Structure formats: structure tokens, C-alpha cells
User: Fold these one by one.
Assistant:
Number 1:
Amino acid sequence: MIDKFKVLDIVKDVLEGSDKYLVNMKITPDNRIFVDLDGDNGITIDDCIEVSRAIENGLNRDEEDFELNVSSAGADSPLKLPRQYGRHVGRELSVETFDGKRVEGRLTETGDSQFTIRTAGTKKEAPKELTFAYEDVKTARVLIKF
């Protein structure tokens, strides 16, 4: 099986010193490698190609064959790292906590350990500012509205 730490080191070397970062990496028992990237200013196809080439060059297909998929954390992907929230300030989020609470609102503020959203409110309820600790959030997704 492909050494996860070797792939991780390759990815970290490529991204070091940039605003790009690793969101998730998975290697399956049948040597399928999945790498999800993000950046403070987004990810381009060229960023994915650079990381993909570095992994290809760092691993030996003669020793172990593998399938490689390097992609950006898509618009419909849940936010996994606190760093991802910062670039979405001002956008609508759907948040679900581990205790089952579900809330939608505009992301107004992010910090090292928590973030704040403002709900829209209804005729019966005024808008609210709600603060969540990242560790309490099961999923948070940016709502894409057309």
C-alpha cells in the first residue's frame, strides 16, 4: 500500500510558502489516492496539476501502481478546516451541530476557535447572531443561490 506519510510530505513541500493548503487526503487499500486542496484565494487547475505532478514524480509506479485524483474542495463540499471559513465571510452557510441543531445564516465573523452567523429572521422572530465553536459543528456548507 502507498505510504500516506510520503504522499503527505510531497503535498506539504509543494504547498509550503503559498496560500494553498491540504483539506483532506485519503488513500484506499487498492492504492487510489484522493487529495483535496483549498487556498485563501481559491484553487486553480494549475495548482492541482502542480501537486499531481509532484506526487507522480515522488512515487514509483514500478513498485506500486496507483490511481491519483487531485482536486479543489468544491463549492458543494463541506467546510472542514477553520481556515476555510475566512474566505466565505459574507456568504450564506448551512450549519449542523453534533447535537442536531440546524441553522442557516450569513457568515459574519471568523476566529481561531469559533465563527458567527446572522440569521435572516422571520415575521415572528428577529434576526440573531449565533456563534459556534468549530469543534461543535458536524457540517457547514456554503449555500449556493442562483
Number 2:
Amino acid sequence: MTKRISPLASATRERLRQRVEAIQDAASISPSEVVAAELKSTDFSTLPGYDELRFYRSLGQKFGIENPYFRTHDGRAGSHTQIAGKALLNFSSYDYLGLNGHPEIVAAAKAAIDLYGVSASASRHVAGERPVHHALEQALAQHYGVADSLVFVSGYATNLGVIGHLMGPKDLVIYDSLSHNSIVMGGVLSGAGRRSFPHNDLDSLDRMLTLSRGHFERALIVVEGLYSMDGDYPDLRRLIEIKSKHNAWLMVDEAHALGVLGKNGFGTAEHFGIDPRQVDIWMGTLSKTLAGCGGYIAGCHELVEYLKLTAGVFVYSVAMPPVIAASTLKALEILHREPERVSKLQRNGATFRALALARGLDTGNGAGTAICPVIVADSAPAIMLSQRLLERGINVQPVTHPAVPAKASRLRFFLTAMHTEAEMAAAIGATAEELGQVRGRMRALGPLL
């Protein structure tokens, strides 16, 4: 029986034959070399950066440095956690106010599961709309004193999809050089002109807009309310002046600022004593202070209506699970009700940085908030320091290039309202001791690296 070849397979073979002939004609190489090239092009290990990953993995194995990422926590991780059965002091949690696992939030989540199940099972346009979505959005809008808000199932996708949707090829997106990847990639997705200004250098932002604003229809300035790698924040008053001067929109990413900045933890606007309506787009996440998952946009009615009806990241995505909406709604209520949690967190942030500076540690741009970097410089010693601290019962993650600039690798300490001064002092003491030993070891290994 003659084996029948499908039209699809035949067409695929024809395309491959034409590609082989084209490569041969262009490079005058043998058919065997062409086949080798074809095989290589389908090997995932040839993807950019894979060789570098292999190199660092082998280097770590050679010098006994473990992969610090993807460690499995045995249960809830707050100011303390447990990994592989070992109790640890934890500085790698976004649970700034200690709300994850709060009895009222757990009860709200369980009640939502009983009522709605676990999933909305559809996009909100189709059949995923639930009353709790509206309740959460109304509460977020009231929090910012704006007309409306909209929640999304992913914080990363909120920035990516909203920036990518609002702006277009005739527009300009201009952002801080230390902005989160989701902001940068949102600009890429939009096809707009893109510029970045030096971190928190608003004079440079003003000059850049003076030179370029007239070449674009719309302009969007994007900053973070609290920068997740450095623990510092921008001058919101000046940003509002600049955006007004240049007829631009201003978008503030409150992912790490909500619950952290401002007397009551209301965020950047409260910290600066500014009417939140002076900012065009408030963006934030539900996964930090509010102990949930997802993102939100808050602003005027026209903005929210436009996104709700036209933004692909919302229209074509499943609705936020009702259990998440219910639990984050309760977390926001507790944030408003218990400002003493915010006060404790702010004291802890200031205390931790003071302790670090007293021991000679480099805290970079840290401003004494819930995020405090300890700059180590190179990637290998940062990873090694993290491992040594883990062995001493302290969990803190390294952040290395390219997530941060070259020679700016660091340990990133997240503080919570639940940490005690004794725990923070112990962590700083151990960090200072181990950093000295790690640097000594790195000098000894220098010729081998």
C-alpha cells in the first residue's frame, strides 16, 4: 500500500526544500551543514541567554552555591515562614500589613466560595460578572476619591494591557529608568514612541518632554509610587506640575505604595497631601498589602468605561475569581479600619534602614520604607550571601543583573508590620557578619572565576 502524504506535509516539505536551496545559494554550504542548521534552529537551548543560564548553573554547582529561587514554602509566609521543615525569619514577603491569613479575610473567602464557587468560569462580558466585583471596584474608587475603577486578574497584565491599549504609534510613553518590566513592555506593545528618564530625575523628564512632546499626539508619563527594587518614591507634586505643563497623562503604579505610604497607608497621594484626582491613572495590585492577586485601574468614568469595553486584557480574560475579590475587599476594609498597622510598618522601615546604616551596609536609594535594599555589587556574592543567611535561619532573596543595573546586585529586604525590632536587629547583624565573610571568600576565589 502506498503511503499517502497529506497536503499539509507536502507543503511543509516544499517550504523546507526551498529554504535549504536558499541557504545553499547564499552560503555555498553542503546539504549536511544545512540540515545541522535546521536542527539547531528548532533546539530550545539555542534561545538567547540559555548558554548564560547553563554557565551560571555549572558555576554554582562548582562552588556550592544553590539556586536561591523557587524554594518551596511549607505554609503561609509572612514575617516568618517554613522551608523544608525549617522555621525561618522571613524578609521576602509582600504581606506588608500582615493581613494574609487574617481571620476576617479567611471567613470572607470561605463565604465567597460557598456562594460562588472558586472560579467565575467566564469573562465578565460573557457570564462572569458577580456583585462582589462591583463592590470591590466601588471600594477602590472611593479609596482614591475618583469616579470608578476596574479590576484585572493579573497585576503584570494590567500594566502591559492598559498601556499597550491606551497608547499608539502616534503617541509617546515616557517612564522612569527603574520602572517595572510590565511598564516597559506595555510601551513596547503599544507601538508608541518610548523614552526613559534617569531615576527620579524630574528635571530630565521636563527637558525631554520640552524637546519631544510636540512630535506626538498624546503623551503618558508612568512612574511607580514606591519603587520595588529601591524602596524610594518620586516627587508627586512635581510630576503633576510637569504633566500639566506638557499636556500629558500621568499614571502612577501603586503596587508597593498602597498600605505603605501615607499616614493611613492610602498611598502616594496621601503621603504628599495631594488630591488623587490630579493623577489621571492610578494603577495598583491586589497581591501585596491586600493579600490577594490581580491588578486594578482607578480614575475617571470615561477611562474605566473605555477599558471595560475595549481593552483586550479585560474583555478576553476570565473574570477575577470571586473568592479573590471578596478577600481583597475585606483586606481593604481592614486597612482603613486599623491604621495602627501602617504606623508599625513605617516605624519598622525606618528602624531597619537605620540599623543597616549603623552597621556600614549600603542601602542605596532606600528611603526607610517597607523595602530596603542592601547593595552587594556583583551577582555571585549576592547569591552566596542569601544562601549563608538562609543557613542562619533568615530568608531574604538576592536580586541580580539584569533585574537591576550592573554592579548593583543586592539583597532586597521586605519589612512587615509583624516584624519585631529584635528580629530586624538580628537580621542586620547576621547580614553584616556574613557579608564580610562572603567578600573574603570571593577575593580568594577571584582567580578561578
